[in-house]
Structures are given as C-alpha cells and as structure tokens.
Design goal:
The chain is an all-alpha fold. It starts with 24 loop residues before the first helix and ends with a helix.
C-alpha cells in the first residue's frame, strides 16, 4: 500500500484496469501550491483594509477583556469607570472652557508699511462695520499708538510692542495707565493668544482712543505749572 504523501492518484479518464499515475512528494506539493494560488480560489478573501480592521478590533476586544477582568464588577464596572471619566472631563471643559494658547513672546505692534492714525482709524471702523471685531480692535490699538506718536508723546519706534507702548504712554498720561494696559492685553490676546474680540472690546478701545485725544499730557501740566511759578516769583521780586 502506497503512502498518501508520496503519491497522488490522478483519475484522468480511462479504464480502471490502467495502472495509477504517481507523482513524487515535492512536485505534488508545488503543483498544489500553484493550483491554490490561482485567483479563482481567493475571490472571497477579505481585503487588506478589512484584515487590518479585523486585527484592530481583535486588539480592542483583547484590551477591553483584560481591563474588564482587572476591574471590580467586570464589564459593567469598566463601563461605569469610563462614564465617570467622561463626565469629569466634560465638567472640566465646561468650567474652564477651551484652552487658549498664551503668546510666547509679544510681537511688534506695526507692520512694515507705516500708516497715519487717521488711516488706522478708518480701517478699524471699516472692520467694525462688517463685524470683524478682531481686526477692528487691532487697527484701533494701532491708531491709538500712532496718534500718540504724531503728538510727540511717544517717540516713533517701529519695533515697539503693545505692552511697551502702553507702559510708555501711561507715564505721560497717568490717568489712563490702567486702561492703556488693558488695551494692550486685549490686543495681545486677540493677535497672538487665539482669542476672539467682541463689539464691546472694540467700543472700549475706541472710547479710550477718543479720551486720549482730549487729554493733555502730564509733562505739559508740570511744565506749565513750573513756568507759572517762576513767572510769579519774578513778578514778586520786581515789585
């Protein structure tokens, strides 16, 4: 009796009286491999994507199975833990809001093209009319600082930041120092901090700009007071 792995009997027609045809093991294996590699045998095989998804879901299933076995209460206990974590994260998100990226460094206030205070004001009003409050706030802050430069209350310095401008202007106009610092923070938050300005922010800045236009600098008052005192002293001495 011949071993099955050593020969294959091919019934290719003919009478049963003919002797069987035998094929050695290695050629038979190669012939079977070639036959099974034909496309007709693999038409219903899962695609590469399907196999990857199956492997992923098998991994997720094993992961949850391991977590459930380590959690008191099994699968129900694991679901309770997951729901609790989701609830805590949702509460933190609602309480703290969307995280905002703070500016790593303050960039310069003006771009390379110099414009007058009137041009910056016109641009800010045009943005405000369209409801573009971020751009309106930016242009109004630039108009404010440019106006102080045009009045010679600040020296013209292209690399100045909003914080620097507010600090320098606060020394000349001390009555408005707090509002100047708040305006600089608003500009930085909108421009570099990823925040969105609103209509009220713009109107606060526009009102500050108008108030500064009507305010005389502290240096002028000090100089006038000194001149008046000196004049009175000279008058008294003459009399």
């Amino acid at each position: 009796m011949l071993h099955v792995s050593e020969r294959a009997v091919l019934a290719a027609g003919g009478s049963g009286d003919e002797p069987p045809v035998t094929i050695p093991r290695d050629p038979a294996r190669e012939a079977a491999r070639r036959e099974l590699s034909k496309r007709m045998y693999h038409e219903n095989d899962p695609s590469l994507l399907q196999r990857a998804l199956n492997a992923f879901w098998d991994w997720v299933d094993r992961l949850f199975g391991a977590a459930a076995s380590a959690t008191p209460g099994g699968t129900v206990g694991l679901l309770v833990v997951i729901l609790f974590v989701v609830a805590v994260l949702a509460a933190l998100w609602w309480r703290l809001g969307t995280p905002r990226r703070r500016p790593v460094s303050a960039a310069v206030l003006f771009d390379e093209r110099p414009r007058s205070a009137a041009e910056h004001r016109a641009a800010s009003e045009a943005h405000a009319a369209q409801g573009h409050w971020n751009q309106a706030v930016q242009e109004r802050m630039r108009a404010l600082v440019r106006s102080l430069e045009e009045r010679a209350l600040l020296d013209v310095r292209p690399g100045r930041t909003a914080d620097e401008a507010a600090a320098e202007a606060g020394r000349v106009l001390p009555a408005h120092s707090d509002r100047l610092r708040a305006a600089a923070r608003e500009f930085d938050d909108v421009t570099y901090g990823g925040r969105r300005a609103g209509e009220q922010s713009y109107h606060r800045l526009a009102e500050l700009d108008r108030d500064l236009e009507r305010t005389k600098p502290a240096l002028a008052h000090s100089h006038a007071s000194t001149t008046s005192t000196a004049h009175s002293a000279r008058q008294g001495a003459a009399e």
